[in-house]
Design brief:
It holds the Pfam family TusA. This is Sulfur carrier protein TusA. Belongs to the sulfur carrier protein TusA family. The protein is α+β, with helices and mostly antiparallel strands and about 80 residues long. The chain has a single domain, classed as Translation Initiation Factor IF3, CATH 3.30.110.40. About 30% of the residues lie in helices and about 30% in strands. It is built from 2 helices and 4 strands, in the order βαβαββ. The chain has a 4-stranded mixed β-sheet, with helices on one face.
């Protein structure tokens, strides 16, 4: 199951706080497709995944909206 999280218009730290809150509700193996326009999200999402041990499957930061596909690894 893939969950879409539209965070357009939110800025740091709201992007990470909302992502973390959503990730906590999901089961291991589920995926989050994330949309954001926060220019700092590239670094923040990479660090979030590394710290929380989630897997960043893909990302596109060439143009807005930036997109990320994250697989939940912890539970």
């Amino acid at each position: 199951m893939k969950y879409t999280l539209n965070l357009l218009g939110l800025r740091c730290p709201e992007v990470i706080m909302t992502l973390r809150k959503t990730a906590r509700k999901l089961k291991k193996g589920q995926k989050i497709f994330l949309l954001t326009d926060d220019k700092f999200s590239n670094k923040d999402i990479i660090l979030f995944c590394r710290f929380m041990k989630h897997r960043l499957l893909s990302m596109s930061s060439d143009k807005i909206p930036y997109t990320y596909l994250i697989e939940i690894k912890t539970k």
